[in-house]
């Protein structure tokens, strides 16, 4: 277990915090399956699950921003788009027969670092804005 999620990452909006926790648990699952010799099918399956949860989570956050007229919506949405572009690039790289270990290491670093940074630097501000709206 990596235990990436800590209370310091809470944005104090329950619906968002719950999704972040689930995403981190899938990131940990991806780490375990990709770094401990899981089969390619297994790796791709967990990767797809992670991708789907990220897409849904970003769409939900964007929905809240639109609903409550968040002033930094465009900027925040662009950060989501950049994040997903990298996910789709990795998805393409995973289509080859043998996924290189360096790609898996790159993916793991991107998911954990990328999400930690996004939550602490971007979602945190959205949390402050949304806190009294729910
Ligand atoms: Fe976000
Ligand atoms: Fe988020």
TrEMBL record:
Keywords recorded for this protein, A-Z: Iron, Metal-binding
PROSITE patterns per the UniProt record, alphabetical: HEMERYTHRINS (PS00550)
Annotated coiled-coil segments of the chain: none
TM regions (residue ranges): none
Pfam families linked to this entry: Hemerythrin
One GO MF term attached to the UniProt entry: metal ion binding
Stretches assigned to the Hemerythrin-like domain: 13-126
NCBIfam families: bact_hemeryth (NF033749), hemeryth_dom (TIGR02481)
Family note: Belongs to the hemerythrin family.
Entry protein name: Bacteriohemerythrin
